[in-house]
Amino acid sequence: MRRARPLLESLFAISIGLIVGGLLMLPFRYDPLKAYQALFRGAFGTSHDIMETLAFATPLMLTAITFAVGVRAGLFNIGAEGQMYMGAIGAVFAASLLPLPPGIHVVVATLVAMLFGALWSLVPALLKIWRGVHEVISTIMFNWIAFHLAMYLAIYYLAEPGRAERTRPALPTARYPILAEGSTLTAVIFVAVLFCIAVYFVLWGTRLGYELRLVGENPEAARYAGVRISRALLWSFLIGGMAAGLAGASQIIGRPPAWSLYATLGNVVTLGFDGIGVALVGRNHPLGGILAAILFGALQHGGRFMEYHAGVLSELVRAVNGLIVITLAVPELWAMVRRRWIR
Amino acid sequence: MKELLLQRLGWIGLTALALGLLTYGLDRVGLEPVSLLEAGLLAMTPLALAAVGECVNEKAGVVNIGLEGTLLISAVAGVWVAEQFGSGVAGLIGGMTVGGLIGLVLGLLAVYGRSDQIIAGIGLNLFALGFTPYLLMSLWAFPGIHIFPRELMVPRWITPIGQISPVTVLAVLLAILAHVLLHHTVLGFRIRAVGEKPEAVDVAGVRVDRLRLFTSVLGGALCGLGGAFMPLAWFGGVVKEISAGRGFIALACVVFAGLEPLLALAAAFLFGLTEGIAYAVAVTPGVKERIPFYFVNMLPYVTTLLVVALVIGRRRFPRTIGRPYARE
Amino acid sequence: MLAHPHFRPSVRTMGLRIEMREIHKVYPDGTVALRGVDFRLERGEIVGLLGENGAGKTTLMKILSGLLPPTRGEIRIDGRPVRFRNPADALREGIGMVHQIFTLVPPYTALENILLGQEGSALWLAKDRARDRVQRLLEETGLSIPLDVPVELLPVGVQQRVEIAKVLYRGTQVLILDEPTSALTPLEVEELFRFLRRLKEGGRSIVFITHKLREVLEISDRIVVLRNGRVTGEIPTIEATPELLAEWMVGRAVVPRVSRSPRPPGEPVLVVRDLEVMGDLGLPAVRGVSFEVRAGEIFGIAGVEGNGQSELVQALGGLRPIHRGEILLDGKPLPPLAPIEAYRRGIAHIPEDRLRFGMALNFDVAENSILSRQWEPVFLRGGGRLNWPRILTFASELLQRFQVIAPGVRAVVRSLSGGNQQKLVVGRELTKEPRLILAVHPTRGLDVASTAYIRELLVQMRDAGKAVLLISADLDEVLELSDRIAVMYEGKFLAVGPVEVFTREEIGLMMGGMIPEGRAR
To answer: Which of A306, B139, B250, C171 is the most buried (most CB within 10 A)?
Structure first.
């Protein structure tokens, strides 16, 4: 029972989110049952759909890491969005402008993206450490700055000649291989999963991870234990930035058919914010995040079918995401349910 | 205390001076200061409304990180109500009501559900991110944007310093009222106490839950008015990203002001002015070609960060801010 | 404080007769606090409510003052059943409580705190009108309080007066005091007692919650003893004996005393010279303290909490910067603000508040068993990896050796009782093979058995030749364990010497800042 509790809580929150989401369809005369049926059939109906769901899940498990590693260190790092933009810019830059041999090129492009993401998280980290600026404010401001900066760079420096609506595409040498014909799922998902496992190992298997979690659990005990708190916070931001940067890369060099960044940033926007819900449903655990990302990937991929078959705009899925987060913010809701029905 | 106030005023003075110089510079390259002030006051209004409400709310120890989401939803709701009643003012009231309801829900979750207020606020913002385009599509069957008839716009007053919206004047009045409420009334006396030590208020026989619900609804309602102001008295239409981070800039104003409504108003004016400059630069021929639009757009966010980084750390916040109260 | 000679209550008081019957209380988390308690209070009497920590004293009185609803049972006032939904209801019936943790708004002045909830007007705040009424109350009761200073700047004793004034201002007939003496000096305690007797003569009734036998015997008319949520005895004070009360309280004859054999002390391990340390508000908290602790001795520091003890230990443990002076460990200076260096040099630190400093509640037993030791090479493998097999073995050894009752080494420490949590912390620190042990309130809040066990461990450490610095708010603990003691008051040592040369009364005086004759250092 004790072990199962987080899982049950997450399932409870997901149900509440879906139910309230369904209620929001009623005033506009949509049929929630039909909509959700279309959604789930769309998400898991065929093996092709399952692969698409996984393709949607790939960036989400990474942006979830950004938030989760933050929470583990006691931070609300909601900067995955901006760090992901910068990661995408880094990926475009390395993948489309640097001529490198195959094999090495993919690795370099991936690392450059992670570096860009980490660098973008550095300023909020230092503002937090030096000036005590609350990370919610600083990361949000950095998201907006990144938004405008990324568009500027995409249009002024990285645009594909003759096609202003997007950047130069990644050179073939910098692309992750597609896993099945006609699918948008590429080998980048393995990198993402490996990254999640690595973060799990760092958090629970190393002194750094122990100290980072201790800072999040009880900063005063961390000080007593001789932990350098600023160092732990810095690492939390940097790991998060690398994850978000990798998420950005996954949409450029790991996602056909564009292999590039749209000038409106349309193929990356909100992936960072979506990661917050994924992280919370995954209980801020890197491995739980993988499962939760698959669920949210399913919602996003299936959401298109919902739009097509039931006319409900797929963005409602994002609202459901928010409802799930709100539900998870209120532990008492779950406690009340348990008292009433389970005892 | 007085010293702190002077210090803050000093900061504002310095920044105002810098902005004055900037204004002069902009004037030299062909921008009009009057239109700048006009744009600045418009941009100030939603920030000020959201920030003033949040000041009172945080004084009571409740944090609403979801100002951004509240602005978004109430902007759409305001336009819808305005169309139903054929009146912009009705829309403002509608936005305020919806904002108040959102505040009520968040307040209920925080007070009785003992929610993590930061996560609940983040959740609200995420919800609004999806709900707003969904609403736009479902209400008006058009993706991402809706332009309503011009006659629904709340008219502006024409004055020597440009056109001024009555809502702007209202926002200033509300800031003053909030100051009076907090510092000169029994209610404010209790609100400030509840943020510092809810136990004290409770054993004195005053209901902690009601005080916090009240401030949460008040904060939400003011923010909702700010949300409805944007389409109905400023832009003339609603788009899915209409709030554009203003909720967070308002939070920065609150931090900057150390929860004092009058200072929050001043901060909102500063941020509004930077936004006004950005807007003016973007539309003025001869200037917009010289400075890339994207950099101008970053200005409010960069300013916010700089200001917060410079003044924070000297602010004293209520001891129980963001923490639920329970008797053991 | 209570110097007014002609104390007369202004209102003609009737007094109340209160009866609580069959009170049960189960907290939402399932903890059973009260299991059917009967309690009565007559007009104009002082009842001592005695019991150990967790006996249910405070819960019972929180129910009477409307702060908590009872799970079952009824309350009658003058025979009429009442039901309190909140403290306001109880205040209307004339029942008010002064809590152990003060319920004052720190930045508000005393006047503002007294007015809160009783502002006397509906809309505008008019402090000056109310000031007269408060002033009159203070004159009548003889309480002296500076009305216009923020209470956070007032000493604890004065804050308590503000609390009492706050309750009396509401026309209270029944005054409940929860452990009112825990933060007071002996002199202040006597003043408080005089004041309470005068209130009683004026017809008010008082419930005095405490776990101190001495006090309850001195002040009360009747004593009710609670243990584990039940009344275990009730007796008029004149018939009570300390032995009987102690038995009712702990269920066993007496608290076992730790035997401490005389032992010649060794070399000085810790030498502190002219140490000055700043407090959180930037004012000096430790003001020029010099002492040494030798191998094989327990050096105890007595004193009312908040006189610089915390800051002193934090400086020694590397958690707080040193403003002046020096700290030598084994003759070599200790670098400031470097806890790990302090641990490496042989300092073990049992922190003052385990929940705040000593552990992470959501970490499991194994993780907590290496907290502050996570840098030790024993627990690491190459590349900064944790050596989990070794950590788990170490944790289970710790559980066994220090009699910690836990479901397992991977159980979250939140699920352990306070006593077992503390034993885990103590065990973790004592197994560091230290040269010097800083033990701060090592037994606070523990049951009798755990207390005796931990005290014994400290004496064993001393006998094994370690240097022990003991700081405790419990004077009896300091006297029982220490070889030498110091009394700390306002950041200074008023006296240092072997424990035998002081009488309890002398120490009591010095804790209140008075130096007894012939004791000037």
So the answer is: B250
